Amino acid sequence: MSTTSDSSAAPTPPIPALALFSLHGSVALVTGAARGIGQAAAIALAEASADVVCVLRRTSSSESTGEHTDVDHRVVPPSRRKAEEGTKPGAGVGGKVDDSEGAIREGGGEGGGEGEGGVKEKEKTQDTIAALGVRAYVVYADLEDMADVKTVWPRALALLGRERDGESGEGGEGEGVEGAGGEDGEGAQGQPRIHILVNCAGVQRRHPSVAFPEADWDTVLDVNLKACFLLAQAAGRHFLSFDATSGSGGGGYGRGGKIINFCSLLSYQGGFTVPAYAASKGALMQLTKALSNEWAHANVQVNGVSPGYVRTDM
Ligand SMILES: NC(=O)c1ccc[n+]([C@@H]2O[C@H](COP(=O)([O-])OP(=O)(O)OC[C@H]3O[C@@H](n4cnc5c(N)ncnc54)[C@H](OP(=O)(O)O)[C@@H]3O)[C@@H](O)[C@H]2O)c1
């Protein structure tokens, strides 16, 4: 056995370990991104270079004052806004984007009289994301309202489509805003793409089971379970609409996608005075397994995360 080494051989290039975890070129849609764990998840995805669509309620339950636009939009950091305004041929197409962004950002000024402490906290997520140099989008929805929930995915795709068409100067028929949200895979190779869904929004209601109000049961099951299913269904339709060899829509990911559902220790345990929450989180874990079984063949990974106790408003 020779122990001599060939000094003329090229050194092994360093393994770009962090690059293996990069989400550059991918788009993540995150519910509950206004605060708490969802906010942290949205920012973490942005730190990994993903563009992020934040799904926010029009008026956060943590905000006592303030109104703001309910127009979905993209957030551009002030430092880049001027440059982009000058170069973007699609500023007209996505006019709503810039208008609403200005209205929100200017807060207590011409944006509609939001007070200090009003929409500011909610803005933190998208501002932080935009400042990381990736794109931040906002889609407004009340996840208790299933009619609203069903529009989230198409509206997010429409928002991405408006920007893409604006940037490229295209905007041809069938690829624009209206065609972007197709659920049946038609035109999939031309449509904008979302790669990751994070179902993080959640609510808790505590009452002894004998007195648990039916309305609270419905709220918890709707937000924590039904909305997650409807969003996962929309995501699944989208992910499965790409063919295995396609690299279209950005990122070159082929067919597939990721769904991450925020479950709970209460997916495993019963807790006390939280029957609706325990039922919703137990069911969400079962839903995670069911979707995972059904879509794994198409490179769609559905996973659940069950955090321990985290100090949030919940
Ligand atoms: N904190 C914990 O210890 C813990 C442990 C395990 C699992 N989890 C799970 O982790 C997830 C995040 O919890 P968290 O502690 O971060 O909660 P949080 O601080 O109370 O935040 C909840 C988020 O969900 C959003 N949301 C609630 N109802 C909504 C609705 N009807 N429409 C749209 N958005 C709505 C809230 O938006 P607004 O700001 O508009 O209200 C907020 O962004 C939840 O699914 C929770 O069950 C939490």
From TrEMBL:
Acidic residues bias spans: 168-186
Pfam families on file: adh_short (PF00106)
Disordered as annotated region, ranges: 59-124, 163-189
Gene Ontology molecular function terms on file: oxidoreductase activity, acting on the CH-OH group of donors, NAD or NADP as acceptor
Entry annotated with the keyword Transferase: no
Family: Belongs to the short-chain dehydrogenases/reductases (SDR) family.
Protein's UniProt name: Uncharacterized protein
Organism: Pleurotus ostreatus (Oyster mushroom)
Lineage: Eukaryota, Fungi, Dikarya, Basidiomycota, Agaricomycotina
